[in-house]
What we know:
Elements: E1 6-8, E2 14-16, H1 25-32, H2 36-58, H3 61-77, H4 89-124, H5 127-141, H6 146-155, H7 160-167, H8 171-195
Antiparallel strand pairs: 1-2
Helix pairs in contact: 1-2, 2-3, 2-4, 3-4, 6-8, 7-8
Amino acid sequence: MTATAVATIPGGASMSAGSPPVHDAALAHAFAAGDHGALEDLYKNVSSLIYTMAVRSLGSSADADDVTQQTFVSAWKARESFDPDKGDLRGWTVGIAKRRIADALAARAREVRRAEAAQENVTSIRGDDADSVLLAYEVEALGDPRKTIIALAYYEGATHEQIAARLDMPLGTVKSHVRRSLQELRHRWEVSDVAS
């Protein structure tokens, strides 16, 4: 919200920026007590400063609007933690705004890191890597017990006898599963090559 915008705050009160500043202990006490009028006065007093700080830090009026709104919502929700006898209400609210700005900057940085990581993952899957990913997907699609048998045979290098002993299956059953699995994988692989 810009300095001349109107906002709706918790409790349904609406407020517009641009009123003269209010500096008194009565406002701070009324705010801490939950007086909606005090919140409106606080907004009129500090919203332009918070919006300006947010625009300068974030470079976006939309993000600055969000930070300004979040600041006053956070202040209202945390009003019971504010002690008007120990601190300045305006300074306390600006402190909340600084934390909301820092949160917005951190969220941006996380999003950039996620995008970069996703791009690295996409560009690192090429050639044989893409074939390995496709093969792993197709093996997974075989379902148990065949995917387990194929994984043991080709990823771990186990012999048919070792697989039979490990899975407590007859040797002929293991061999049948291997043969049928390889036929299915070959068929899927050929279909995949034709489709691409």
